[in-house]
Design brief:
mainly alpha; single chain; Rna Polymerase Sigma Factor, Chain: A; Arc Repressor Mutant, subunit A
Length: 193
């Protein structure tokens, strides 16, 4: 931004940008997108282990943000925790959709014969299997624990920020993370050794 005197003005904070977005300012929304898109995509990728799904979640997150612009207020001033929470919800939606598609595919029967692939692909698939095992275990946690883990452990949001977004106390977030870690150790014994 440039002031009338030609000097550059400091970039607007999320609160100021969001106020402009609430009035329908597409440029402010674009600025907010550019400020937080990488964090949202990285969070989605960590939760899905899929670049394609992360792109879908990124798009769905900002579409939801635009659609809900008149009803959301950022009390802490940063849009990032809220956007990450929306992305987590979008991941769960994608996960449910994938689960339904998998059930349909199982009913259709096994796929036709698949050609043998190189050893490198096998190693890559093994790594993906481990990531998906961890993600599946996270998705099997109770909702409160899953949200705390997704925000604090996966997206590396502070417990205080997570508490504000989730509408609970910081102690509750820390307690949920502690219980979630215990459950994840039980669900993933070979991953924790």
């Amino acid at each position: 931004m440039t002031t009338p005197s030609g000097a550059h003005a400091p970039p607007a904070g999320d609160g100021a940008l969001w106020s402009a977005v609430q009035r329908g300012d597409r440029d402010a929304f674009t600025a907010l997108y550019h400020r937080h898109a990488d964090a949202v995509w990285n969070h989605a990728f960590r939760l899905t282990a899929s670049r394609t799904l992360a792109e879908d979640v990124l798009a769905a997150t900002f579409l939801a943000a635009w659609r809900r612009r008149t009803e959301v207020v950022f009390e802490a001033g940063s849009a990032r925790p809220w956007l990450l929470a929306v992305a987590g919800n979008e991941v769960r939606t994608q996960w449910r959709r994938s689960s339904r598609q998998l059930r349909v595919a199982r009913r259709l029967g096994p796929p036709p014969d698949v050609r043998d692939h190189a050893d490198g692909v096998v190693a890559s698939l093994e790594g993906r299997r481990r990531v998906h095992a961890v993600l599946d275990a996270i998705h099997r946690l109770p909702a409160g624990q899953r949200d705390a883990v997704a925000l604090c452990l996966v997206a590396e949001v502070s417990p205080a920020e997570a508490a504000r977004v989730l509408g609970v106390t910081e102690a509750t977030v820390r307690s949920r993370i502690h219980r979630a870690r215990q459950k994840l150790r039980a669900l993933l014994p070979e991953e924790s050794s």
